[in-house]
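Morning - adenosine-5'-triphosphate inputs below, output right after.
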Amino acid sequence: MKPLQVEHVVKQYGDKTAVNGVSLEVEAGEIYGLLGANGAGKTTTMRMVLGLIYPDQGRISYFGKPYSADQLRMMGYLPEERGLYPRVKVSDQITYLAQLRGISRRDAERNLKRWLERFEVPEYYDKKVEELSKGNQQKIQFIASVIHHPKIVILDEAFSGLDPVNVEMLKGVVKELRDEGMAMLFSTHRMEHVEELCRNMTILHRSDVVLQGNIKQIKKRYPRERVVLRTAGEVAGLEGLRGVTQVERHEQGYDIRITGEEAASEIIKLAVSQTEVQRFEVMEPTLNEIFIRSVGESHE
Ligand SMILES: Nc1ncnc2c1ncn2[C@@H]1O[C@H](COP(=O)(O)OP(=O)(O)OP(=O)(O)O)[C@@H](O)[C@H]1O
C-alpha cells in the first residue's frame, strides 16, 4: 500500500478553481517534489492531503484508507508560515504538540532531547521560542513536525530562513528520515533542492498539472542546449559556429548556448585546435530551466 495517493482532486473557491484534477503518489522512503509558481495550487493541495480542507472531487488515501483521526496521527506538517508560540518554552510546546499526536509526555521529552542533540542545540530545551534566532526557531518547528514519528510528512519551504550550514544539516536529517522509510511531500521554489532530494515531482501551474514524473527521465526528454567549456587560453570564433546562439566568457572559460548537439562537436574541434581544453561538457537542462519552460509553455 502506498503511504499517500491523491487521485484527481479538485478544489474550488466560489468560481475560482484552486486545484484542477491533481493526482500523485508518494512511496515510503521517497521525497516527492511539489512545485509551482505563486498561486499554482500547492498549498491547497497540501491542505487537502492534511485533511484541513476537503476536495470537491477526487480522493485521497493513506495506506489505502480514507482520511480519519488515525491518519492525522501518522502525519507531520511543517507549514510555510511558522506557528510556534513565542513566549512558551521549547520543551513545553513540543511535548504538548507531540501528546496531541498520541505519544506520551515521557517519550516526547526523550525524543525532543534526541532531536535537539541531532541539531546540535541541546541547550534550547529550556529556552523560550522568542529567545531563539529565526533559523533556530525553524529547527524547532521541524522537530515539531516529526517528533511523533509520522509515516507521512509534508514539508512546505523547509529550508527557508536557514543559513547554508543549517540547510546542509536539515537536508541531512531529511535524507535520514527518507532512508528510514518516511514518505515526504516536499514543496518549494528552490529547484536545486528538488534536484538533490526528489525522485519524482509534479509542477502545477494555475491549478493544473503541467509536468509530472521521474525527474531523471523528464530531464532526458529535454534537449541539451548548454555547453560548459573550460580552457587554458582564449578560443576565437565560437560565436561564428553554426548552432551557437550565445557565448559567455568567464574567468575559467566559456558557457555556450547551442541549438542542437551537432554544434557541440564543432565547439570541441575549434577549442582543441587553439588551446588546452580542461573541461568540456554538454549539460542536461537544470530543473530551473525545465520549470521556466513548462510554466512558460502553459502560459502560452
Ligand atoms: N481560501 C481561499 N479562498 C479563495 N481563494 C483561494 C483560497 N485559498 C487559495 N485560493 C486561491 O487558489 C489559488 C491557489 O492558491 P494556493 O495557495 O494553493 O497556491 P500556492 O501554489 O500555494 O502559492 P504560493 O507559492 O504563493 O504559496 C490561488 O489563486 C489563490 O488565490
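Note: The pocket of adenosine-5'-triphosphate is lined by residues 13, 16, 18, 36, 38-44 (CB under 6 Å).

O.
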